[in-house]
Amino acid sequence: MSSRMDEEERIRMSHAGLLARSAEGHAAKGMRIKDQEDMWVEIQHHTFKNWVNVQLRDTGLRVENLSEDFHDGVALVTLVEVLQKRRLRKVKRVLNQHQALENVSTALKAIADDGIKLVNIGAAMSTSLAR
C-alpha cells in the first residue's frame, strides 16, 4: 500500500508542479488558486527535505519531518557542518530547550560567519523551540 501512496503522491506533485509554472516557466508565477499555492509549498517542502537528506547521507541522520527533526538543532548543526566541511560544537543529546537553542544559535552563527545574510530569523523560531 505504501508504494501505491508514494506513486500517487509523486503523480499529484508532478501534476501540481506543471500547474505551478507560468508559460515562462517561473514557479508559482500567476497562481490564482489557493490549493495550487498550497501544493507549490508542499512541493518546495518535499524538495528541500530530499536535498537535506542527500546532504546528510553520510552522517547517519535522516530527516522525515522538518519541524520535528530540526527541533533540537542537532540535524541543523550537522547540515551546516556538512555544507561548510568543518566541525561545530553541538549538544548531541539535547535534554532541554536551552540546549536546543544553543544548537540552533551555533548553526546560525556559523552561517552568518560565512557572510550569509540571515533574514526573517527571529522570535517565531524561538517560540517553536519552546514547545
UniProtKB/TrEMBL annotation:
<dbReference type="InterPro" id="IPR001715">
    <property type="entry name" value="CH_dom"/>
</dbReference>
<feature type="domain" description="Calponin-homology (CH)">
    <location>
        <begin position="42"/>
        <end position="131"/>
    </location>
</feature>
<dbReference type="Pfam" id="PF00307">
    <property type="entry name" value="CH"/>
</dbReference>
<dbReference type="InterPro" id="IPR036872">
    <property type="entry name" value="CH_dom_sf"/>
</dbReference>
<protein>
    <submittedName>
        <fullName>Filamin-A</fullName>
    </submittedName>
</protein>
